[in-house]
Amino acid sequence: MHRVLRVLLFALGLAARPAVAIDPGLVERLAFGESNEKVDAVGVLVASGDEGAPSFLQALADGAVQTAGRRVLIVAGDEGFDAVTGEKIRPLPGDREDVVVNNRLRREIDSALGALRLVSPDRGTRLKAAKADVFLADAHLPDYVALHKEYVAQKLCHAVITYGARGSERQAAEALGRENVSYILSAVWWNAGASSGKPFGEAFKAKYQRSPEWYQALGYETARALLTAVRKAGSADREAVREQLGKLEMDSILPGGRLWFQGHQAHYPFVVQQNQPDGSSPIVYPRELAQIPGTAPNPRCVSGAFAQHVP
Questions:
Q1: Residues 28, 103 within the same domain
Q2: How many domains does the chain have?
Q3: How far apart are CA 30 and CA 193, in angstroms?
């Protein structure tokens, strides 16, 4: 465990280190050294910041590193490359021997490769390397669409996925495909499925021929609360209106059906909704407002409940 942590800490310094050629001494230790020498050389190679470290370590793990005399080769099919210089070798020498990777060294290599992937400049590679069960991100709508497009392209999948308040927007389903946004959770301030929100949802749809989202509902209720406070204040004086807002308690289209302010904050239930394959986003939490039970883990993930990819 300590060695895994040390390798990870080495890897976290890579971004600040210039790329250098693989140290021939490290290559020699990994090819010809005793078990302890090889294990130590893995950590030193990762710490070196060498751009070639991931590919060389992967070749070791794949059994593609061989020796010919004192020369170390990375072999692919009927050709190979010098592990230090990168020189192409063809035809391959006939007197080659495989570099032995025992179980202990294999574990060290796997840990090192995992650490290197965690600091990869490629976001998808980092996400896969994390092997997380839950994916949490907070984004505005355009960023959500862009992020999830990359997420889908990488064939990632997590047991639970959320982009904060984003996820149910029809623009995302249109851009990404309904199947690719199914089971995303979003925590929002309003949902037409709550009984208090149904009249507003029906009236909005009748006027605009589309269902409202929380943006429209919150804008409407903000204006309604402000106008109510202005009416009770008898003027538009800001301090008088602020005082009335502090005292305000009114029937509301918001979840729970009531709105009041305390400490300059609006009080009403926050709701969690989850996209469904049919395009709907019903409330799944809190329980007293839930329309259906939430679904977790994401059934689109394959090869087990917490798989990290989709077919």
A1: yes
A2: 3
A3: 62
Query: What are the distances in angstroms from CA 240 to CA 113, 225, 236, 262?
Result: 63, 14, 7, 16
Pairing of the two strands 271-274 and 283-285:
antiparallel
| Domain contains 293 | no
- Apex 214 CA angle, 212 and 216, nearest 5: 60
Backbone dihedral angles phi then psi of residue 235, each to the nearest 5 degrees: -165, 175
Task: Spell out where the chain has E strands.
Answer: 65-68, 71-76, 79-82, 88-89, 97-98, 134-136, 160-162, 185-188, 249-251, 258-262, 265-267, 271-274, 283-285
Cα–Cα distance for residue pair 138/117, rounded to 1 Å: 23
Whether residue 88 sits in one domain with residue 32: yes
Residue 65 binned pLDDT confidence (cut-offs 50, 70, 90): very high
Q: At what angle do helices 103-118 and 53-61 cross, to 10 degrees?
A: 150
pTM score of the predicted model: 0.59
Same domain, 140 and 278: yes
For residue range 84-99, list pLDDT tens digits in order. Answer: 888 888 888 888 999 9
What pLDDT digit, counting tens, does each position of 217-251 carry? 999 999 999 999 999 999 999 999 999 999 999 99
Tokens of 61: 């793990």
Euclidean distance between CA atoms 184 and 293, whole angstroms: 14
Segments forming the whole domain that contains residue 145:
124-189+270-285
Q: For residue 153, is it within any domain?
A: yes
Q: What is the pLDDT of residues 242-263, one digit of tens each?
A: 999 999 999 999 988 999 988 7
Where a domain ends, among 64, 96, 120?
Answer: 120
- Give the C-alpha distances (Å, rounded to integers) separating 10 from 42, 129, 182: 11, 16, 39
**Amino acid identity, position 155:** K
Distance CA 225, CA 228 (A): 5
